[in-house]
Design goal:
By secondary structure, the chain is an alpha/beta fold. The strands form two sheets. Strands 1-2-3-5-7-10 form a six-stranded mixed beta sheet, with helices on both faces. Strands 4-6-8-9 form a four-stranded mixed beta sheet. The protein has eleven helices and ten strands. The protein folds into two domains: 192 residues, 2-enoyl-CoA Hydratase, Chain A, domain 1 (Alpha-Beta Complex); 47 residues, Lyase 2-enoyl-coa Hydratase, Chain  A, domain 2, CATH 1.10.12.
Length: 263
């Protein structure tokens, strides 16, 4: 279904399970460290699934031991400020966050540094009981650069985010659930299946309504209440020109299951 860019195929694996696109990070020997080829392949696969009409939801996952233990430090240790600022690498996390379709992170084991930021760039997180989240960049003389300071603060609040970023302190799966960082915590044996279950549930909904609802929820993080309400109202009104709105309301009145077509 989806093909990563040439030269990146070994860094990720992709498959489609009905309306769900699955992207698996595939550098297990280095705990899925997020090097340039992996992130290039990830974005390429994400864009393929985003364009595919048959795909309604996307999952990004790693393996039971590690979602991703961070960026590949060997690619950065000799870089200068000028060199690192010209590198497009960090913009790939932004691309994940801007995907029009819902993206779920299925996280087990380490989600640290860039791996934590990748999970945070997704719309939802299903975590195994072994999942560990953290931004340890301070310990190697830098700070988060792919969204960690911004997304953590929006989710956890200033004081908790500040402690994690300034000390490198890690957060367990249960702590992440209590803090609202993840949607659910499940046994390690079932974390991917639970993510797929959630993804299939979302993919069964009317595609245009899902996209617009996602847009409205994300915008709530960036604008004041009046602007957010205006956007919500505008998107709500626009859905009344869709066939899925007519089918959904008709099915409700007729007490039957709707058949959404994405039109």
């Amino acid at each position: 279904m989806s093909r990563p860019p040439a030269g990146c195929a070994k860094e990720i694996r992709t498959e489609a399970e009905g309306p769900v696109g699955l992207i698996t990070l595939n550098r297990p020997s280095v705990l899925n460290a997020l090097n340039h080829p992996l992130m290039e392949g990830l974005v390429g696969a994400l864009e393929d699934f985003e364009r595919a009409p048959s795909i309604g939801c996307i999952i990004i996952t790693g393996n039971a031991k590690a979602f991703a233990a961070g960026a590949d430090i060997k690619e950065m240790d000799h870089a200068t400020t000028a060199e690192i600022s010209r590198d497009p690498h960090l913009s790939r996390w932004d691309r994940v966050g801007k995907c029009a379709k819902p993206v779920i992170a299925a996280v087990s084991g380490f989600a640290l540094g860039g791996g934590c930021e990748l999970a945070l760039a997704c719309d939802m997180i299903v975590a195994s009981e072994t999942a560990v989240f953290g931004q340890p960049e301070i310990n190697i003389g830098v700070m988060p650069g792919a969204g960690g300071t911004q997304r953590l603060t929006r989710i956890l609040g200033k004081t908790r985010a500040m402690e994690m970023v300034l000390t490198g302190k890690r957060m367990t799966a249960r702590e992440a659930l209590a803090a609202g960082l993840v949607n659910r915590v499940v046994p390690v044996e079932s974390y991917l299946e639970q993510a797929k279950k959630l993804a299939h549930e979302i993919a069964a909904q009317p595609p245009m309504a899902v996209r617009m609802a996602k847009e409205a929820v994300l915008k709530a993080l960036d604008v004041d209440l009046d602007a957010g309400l205006a956007l919500e109202r505008r998107l709500f009104y626009s859905l009344f020109d869709t066939g899925d709105q007519k089918e959904g309301m008709r099915a409700f009145i007729e007490k039957r299951e709707p058949k959404f077509t994405g039109k």
